[in-house]
Design brief:
Oligomer: single chain
CATH class of the largest domain: Alpha Beta
Number of strands: 16
Strand order of the largest sheet: 1-16-15-2-3-4-5-6-7
CATH topology of the largest domain: Metallo-beta-lactamase, Chain A
Radius of gyration: 21 Å
Bound molecules: zinc ion
Length: 317
């Protein structure tokens, strides 16, 4: 006797069939990103994170982008691929921080990335310094996403890019907070500290970069903006697991003495393919390699996502 299936049963069978199909595709070695997008479309999430623990006891492991991360347990950092520019999203619990928003042309891309991640409100937005490759997309972000706090250095400039950001901030009735060295903010269960007193000179805006150190459990991250050796020399530094390399891997930054103090396990370079500046410079890459520091670049990997559970950090690409 033929039994007619109820809607619910049909859905269960369809779900199992799709799950089976995805598992077969995965077993056959299909691109996990394709599988990930199929599973998103069908609403049957399959984790494709192939995170494996490395045997040498360090904190790093590699895997693939995973959209089902538990933010109550993990700190998640995305170094967005915005070409020759910076934009970094940091999330834990219900809170989020955006450090820079790429160039003017990247604004919409950053907004869409935030929307994809389900972010309706940013707890903190940091514009590290007033160069276009850092604050270019900030006006789009501020205009389209609710922002609670904006941090920028005191220095101003008279570019259209900068004025657009100031206008967006005014329109949203926000005020710019200028952090001092040692100021701390809480991001979920993570602690963020502003590490340097910006050096305010119109001759070189890079020196005004806000530098942020983030601690989550036993793991730590340093966000350099475009800070240079002069900023590096201005203090002593704590040993830190992950370094966002200053100034896109330029020789102006990441001095030997600085690296010696940080001793990172992993370095991230936010940089554009075949950029006009020749970033990252070979000398810096060699300096990192010589110290056994694993280096990930956005021009090679696209957006890089780090997930920390407070003890270990996994890298997704
Ligand atoms: Zn820059």
């Amino acid at each position: 006797m033929k039994k007619k299936l109820g809607k619910k049963q049909k859905k269960v069978i369809l779900g199992s069939a799709i799950t089976l199909l995805l598992l077969i595709l995965l077993a056959l070695g299909a691109n996990p990103e394709v599988i990930s997008s199929i599973s998103q479309l069908t609403g049957y999430p399959i984790s494709v994170n192939r995170t494996t623990e490395e045997p040498n006891g360090n904190k790093l492991s590699t895997g693939h982008l995973n959209d089902t991360i538990d933010l109550t347990q993990n700190l998640v950092i995305d170094y967005l691929d915005v070409g020759q520019a910076d934009s970094i999203l940091i999330r834990n619990q219900e809170q989020s921080m955006l450090i820079d928003a790429g160039k003017n042309e990247d604004g919409q891309k950053v907004v869409e990335f935030l929307q994809e991640k389900g972010i309706e409100q940013l707890t903190y937005v940091i514009g590290t310094h007033p160069h276009e490759d850092h604050i270019g997309g900030l006006d789009d972000v501020i205009n389209q996403i609710n922002v609670e706090n904006v941090y920028m250095p005191k220095i101003t400039t008279n570019t259209k890019t900068y004025e657009d950001v100031i206008e967006a901030i005014k329109n949203k009735q926000l005020t710019i907070k200028v952090p001092k060295k040692g100021d701390k903010v809480v991001l979920g269960d993570a602690q963020c500290e502003f590490m340097t007193e910006p050096i305010e000179t119109k001759k070189n805006l890079n020196l005004s970069s806000l530098v942020t150190h983030i601690t989550f459990g036993q793991t730590s991250f340093l966000m350099m903006g475009d800070a240079e050796s002069e900023n590096e020399k201005s203090r002593t530094w704590p040993k830190t697991d992950v370094l966002k390399v200053g100034h896109h891997g330029s020789t102006t930054s990441t001095s030997e003495a600085f690296l010696q103090q940080i001793q990172p396990e992993l370095a991230i370079i936010s940089v554009g393919k075949n950029n006009d500046y020749g970033h990252p410079k070979d000398a810096i890459l060699k300096r990192l390699t010589k110290k056994g520091i694993e280096t990930y670049r956005t021009d090679e990997k696209g957006t890089i996502e780090l997930i920390s559970d407070g003890e270990k950090i996994s890298v997704s690409e």
